[in-house]
Write a structure and sequence with these properties.
The protein has helices spanning 5-15, 31-94, 106-109, 118-125, and strands at residues 130-132, 136-141, 145-150, 153-158. The chain has 162 residues and is an alpha+beta fold.
């Protein structure tokens, strides 16, 4: 089978088989050289298709990985939302600690803020065991827990140590 002229003229320079200008246009190539050209052309075409196929396959793998990661993010978001709602439920349950025993709940200690006054702290934690007063007041609760006030506002606190 003889390749068409345009294909032959395109492949000859690529394969290093270009006819020098001084050569006679009557030169005929042997059937072996023609077969070799056709085979090399087919190999180049197949390699091109393989390269495109590999590139598309890599893209498909990346796409699958992205889909998998997006699904994991959605699952983690749902789990986080569930955990946060459980924490909110526990905070609400902790609010029902018997009056005066609020200091026993770590959740109550974590409700304290530095802007709270004496009444707010007493409502959350209950009455302290001991009070040392003045501009710098220290309320002491069991298990080495305490709240320090500066001019009537919470300055710092330490939770009970079990």
């Amino acid at each position: 089978m003889m390749p068409n002229k345009s294909l032959q003229s395109t492949l000859d320079p690529l394969l290093g088989l270009a006819t020098p200008p001084s050569a006679s246009p009557q030169v005929r190539l042997s059937p072996g050289v023609i077969f070799l050209r056709e085979t090399m052309f087919k190999i180049i075409i197949v390699l091109g298709f393989l390269a495109i196929s590999v590139a598309l396959n890599v893209h498909a793998d990346e796409s699958a990985s992205i889909d998998r990661l997006e699904k994991q993010v959605q699952e983690l978001t749902v789990r986080l939302s569930n955990l946060e709602s459980q924490l909110n439920d526990e905070d609400q349950v902790q609010e029902f600690v018997a009056r005066g025993d609020g200091w026993k709940s770590i959740a109550n200690w974590r409700k304290l803020t530095t802007s709270m006054g004496y009444d707010d702290v007493e409502r959350i934690l209950g009455t302290p065991e001991r009070v040392d007063g003045g501009n710098l007041a220290r309320w002491q609760y069991p298990n080495r827990a305490e709240v320090v006030f500066m001019r009537g506002k919470v300055e710092s606190w330490s939770e009970p140590r079990w």
